[in-house]
Amino acid sequence: EIVLTQSPGTLSLSPGERATLSCRASQTVTLLAWYQQKPGQAPRLLIYGASTRAAGIPDRFSGSGSGTEFTLTISRLEPEDYAVYYCHQHGRSPPFGGGTKVEIK
Amino acid sequence: EVQLVQSGGGLVQPGGSLRLSCAASGFTLSSYWMYWVRQVPGKGLVWVSYINNDGGDTKYADSVKGRFTISRDNARDTLYLQMSDLRAEDMGVYYCSRGAFFHALDVWGQGTTVTVSS
């Protein structure tokens, strides 16, 4: 069973700064997605297939990586970007990572 | 508007049963695999179950196998999760979700809370 490990657990950054979130898989992953979740809300798909932005997602969000190492980058943090982010091996038995919280510094 | 509207959930005693429903609108349910995902408040997301387009292929997390049953009524555009023999560790917010783009979860229900307590 694939395990996804996200780091860091919490990222404290100021608006306008660049955020780099990591997701490491215990085995090779071919399909990797990223979700954003705000308190009291359902998750929102940001990225699928490691690097394809979902519909309506701003281009400040980008995904990269392959194999076992993946990254979500937010180029310049906006106030609405402070949230928890989850990576996810999308497929038939999809494990999720533990999440990274991006908080205001 | 494409959306999933959930119902069901609530408070149930240990060993009890609940049925969650997830009604699709704005799209044809039969075109998509569907998923249930659980989240304990303050914790991460955990996959619970999936079902393929016609209901012929289902899978469950080990923790719910034999106790939960996922099903769908494509004619009614509705997904279900029948939960039985409920335990404290089943508590949380349950989300239904649509699998698209090789099963990335692109549409989510609003979530429904399951509480197991005597």
List the helices and strands and how they pair.
The complex is a heterodimer of chains A (105) and B (118).
Chain A: E1 4-7, E2 10-13, E3 19-29, E4 32-37, E5 44-48, E6 52-53, E7 61-74, E8 84-89, E9 100-104
Parallel strand pairs in A: 2-9
Antiparallel strand pairs in A: 1-3, 3-7, 4-5, 4-8, 5-6, 8-9
Chain B: E1 3-7, E2 10-12, E3 18-25, E4 33-39, E5 45-51, E6 58-60, E7 68-73, E8 78-83, E9 92-100, E10 104-108, E11 112-116
Parallel strand pairs in B: 2-11
Antiparallel strand pairs in B: 1-3, 3-8, 4-5, 4-9, 5-6, 7-8, 9-10, 9-11
Strand content of chain A: over 45%
Mean pLDDT of chain A: 95
Name the shape of chain A in a single word.
globular
Number of strands of chain A: 9
Largest interface: A-B, 24 and 20 residues
Tally the helices of chain A: what do you get?
0
- Structural class by secondary-structure content of chain B: mainly beta
Q: Mind telling me the C-alpha Rg of chain A?
A: 13 Å
> What average pLDDT do the residues of chain B reach?
96
Task: Give the structure's gist in a few sentences.
The complex is a heterodimer of chains A (105) and B (118). Chain A is mainly beta and 105 residues long.
